[in-house]
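ok new one. same drill as before - structure tokens go in, u give me an amino acid for every spot. 218 of them this time. try not to just spam alanines like last time pls lmao
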């Protein structure tokens, strides 16, 4: 999904992809199953870049991870992102149950098909699907078992992106992300479902670029 993003931003913006275990070249490593394990490791991985202005973008599960990371940075009195971008994730304050992670393999597959975004090739090859499911289940468990405590909002501005046909993270479900910040909040409603169309992705890239160029310009 993000493989070409580094070619689409101006030179002043350097995308840094986070490669979590259980996928791609870290496939052999067991995936995280809890936010409390994931976030501290993420903080340590990002320490080398925290002395420069940075922003966070999180899609679906990644939106919740980016939020948890921001709160953890605040707790440790480390630099905060200049902006938080979140997409296709219902607001944490709604405390909605997360589907899939505690269901049978058949139930998880049905949920994946409902969301879209997974190649039919995966579903057509049982051996491939068997390799794929544990990481998907673990990702959903990270969010599904993550507590949402009452806490002081961040001072980080947030821009949220929602697909107008997304049944999991509809615009109404993403609007309460505004409760996570005392700073500016914007919600961009885009064409598509949980996974955005090419037009929607272009809109996201343009919005991120505009926001960050403005921040860098002071």
């Amino acid at each position: 999904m993000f493989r070409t993003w580094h070619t689409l931003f101006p030179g002043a913006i350097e995308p840094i992809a986070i490669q979590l275990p259980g996928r791609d070249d870290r496939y052999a490593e067991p995936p995280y199953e809890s936010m409390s394990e994931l976030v501290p490791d993420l903080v340590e991985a990002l320490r080398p870049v925290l002395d420069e202005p940075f922003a966070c973008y999180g899609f679906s599960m990644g939106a919740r991870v980016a939020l948890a990371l921001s709160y953890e940075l605040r707790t440790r009195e480390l630099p905060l992102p200049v902006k938080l971008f979140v997409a296709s994730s219902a607001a944490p304050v709604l405390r909605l149950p997360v589907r899939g992670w505690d269901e049978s393999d058949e139930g998880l597959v049905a949920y994946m098909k409902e969301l879209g975004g997974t190649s039919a090739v995966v579903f057509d090859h049982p051996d491939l699907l068997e390799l794929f499911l544990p990481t998907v289940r673990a990702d959903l468990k990270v969010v599904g078992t993550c507590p949402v405590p009452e806490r002081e909002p961040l001072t980080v501005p947030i821009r949220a992106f929602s697909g107008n046909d997304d049944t999991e993270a509809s615009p109404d479900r993403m609007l309460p992300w505004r409760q996570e910040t005392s700073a500016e909040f914007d919600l961009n409603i885009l064409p598509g479902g949980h996974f955005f169309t090419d037009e929607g992705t272009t809109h996201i890239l343009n919005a991120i670029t505009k926001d960050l160029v403005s921040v860098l310009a002071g």
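The longest strand covers residues 158-163. and btw The mean pLDDT is 93.
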